[in-house]
Amino acid sequence: MTPDWILTVARACHRAIVRLAPRDTQRRYGGDMRRTFEALSLSAHSRGVLALAALLWRELIDVLSAHQHALSDSGGSMTRRWLDWSQLAPAWRSMLRRPAYAAAVIITLTLGTGVTTTLFAVVETVLLRPLPYPNGEQLVTLYEASPTAPGQLVLVAPGRLADWQRETTAFSAIAGAYSESVTDTSGSNPERLEARRVTPGYFDAFGAPPAIGRTFTPEESVAVGPRAVVISDGLWARRFARDPEAVGQALIIGDESYVVVGVMSRTFAAATIDAWLPAQVPPALLQQREARFMVGVARLKPGVTPEQGRQDLLRIQAALGEEFPATDLGWTAIVSDLRESRVGTRRSALLMVFGAVALTWMVGLANIAGLVIVHTQRRARELSIRTALGASRVQVVNLIVQEMALFAAIGGGAGLL
Question: Contact at 8 Å (CB) between 192 and 181?
């Protein structure tokens, strides 16, 4: 599937193309041109990058044609010669006569464009794209910090998460989760699933409803509650072929039957997560305040900053330290932005790799420029013959420019696939 950012870039390019049109054309038809392109680009986006590129090319030719009709004979003759696209066929034949040269340029463009755009798509997804949740800036992760290492992240005990949820005034929802690898034997072959055990309010914190079905009820979240499971979009497609009747069917996990009650959307979590199960923490474990094994996730109330949320938890934790001095005294809370927690140290690594690839790509472009200059010098005799036969300097330069345009279209288009 073509990434959404390519559609955004295509529309930005079209806005630039519209600004190339004569002023009278912009004033009379600019709005209609933009609306028509937005409608056509949605269909082209579903067919792939080449369809979008072809649509942009047609728009550019239309604008250039409008310019040629608008130019006066006195002031426009030189411009028309520069925009003489009839030389594309000679440019194509010239490129075919030099296959080694053409292959070197096109392969360099294809590899450079492909690697750069692929890595940019990763950077855009991880670092630039907003979290796929309503008001994602309100989402934070919660950890504990011990008195001896106040800056070190420590997992949270489920009983403490329950205390924070009960006493907070800064968060609308606080929940916890931990990873568990389970085996499902309901299919024709056993399958290992990457699952998350979650406490009550987990899905409420994210504010993301399931694609179909529902999430866990309070009865399903308690220790002796019914066995239920929410599955990912990937597992839904893999196991049930996206059949809506999957809700109500069962997975066999640990010799127990878990009823599928809902399916989360594709963007809710990483593709590596297959299912969510209620943690169903026993009351005895809630009393074990040193059993720290959960990552806390919370949603701040509107208008509350992460620092205000941290101060609220520090207030609660101070009171818990007085009530439970053996396990809570001196312990504090750490509140981190959810995006930053997910990115972690990968931000610097991604930016460094992207910068290195971009630099390599620029070196590749410089090599292409040098190759073109050398090749043009070798064609001096051919270009002199063209001039002797009546071709103007503008036509000769136009031939070379259009050869480069063909290289860019073929190599760049192939790199975007």
Answer: yes
**Within a 10 A sphere around the Cβ of 216, how many other Cβ atoms?**
25
The secondary structure of residue 294, as a DSSP letter, is B
What is the length of the chain? 417
Distances from the Cα of 124 to the Cαs of 64, 129, 145, 280, in angstroms?
33, 6, 32, 37
Which residue, 308, 317, 319, 315, is CA-closest to 140? 308
Through-space distance between the first and last CA atoms of the chain, rounded to whole angstroms: 10
The residue assigned the tokens 């990912």 is 232
The three-point CA angle 137-142-147 to 5° equals 140
- Rounded to 10 degrees, the C-alpha dihedral 299/127/332/307 comes to -60
C-alpha closest to that of 207 among 301, 342, 125: 301
Say what the pTM is.
0.62
Per-residue pLDDT of the chain (417 residues; tens, 9 = 90+): 566 777 787 788 778 777 766 677 778 877 888 888 888 888 887 777 777 777 777 777 666 556 555 544 434 444 444 445 455 566 677 777 778 878 888 888 888 877 777 777 777 666 667 778 899 889 999 999 998 887 788 999 999 999 999 999 999 999 999 999 999 998 888 999 999 999 999 999 999 899 999 999 999 999 889 999 999 999 999 999 999 999 999 999 988 999 999 999 998 988 889 999 999 999 999 999 999 999 999 999 999 999 999 999 999 999 999 999 999 999 999 999 888 777 765 667 777 877 887 787 788 788 888 887 887 787 788 778 878 877 777 677 777 777 777 777 777 777 766
- Please name the amino acid found at residue 173: A
Structure tokens at 349: 């690594």
From the list 97, 60, 64, the residue with the least C-alpha distance to 83 is 64
DSSP string computed for 85-141: GGGHHHHHHHHHT-HHHHHHHHHHHHHHHHHHHHHHHHHIIIIISPPSSTTGGGEEE
Give the 3-state secondary structure of residue 392.
coil
Distance CA 120, CA 101 (A): 28
The sign of the torsion formed by the CA atoms of 32, 37, 38, 39 equals: positive
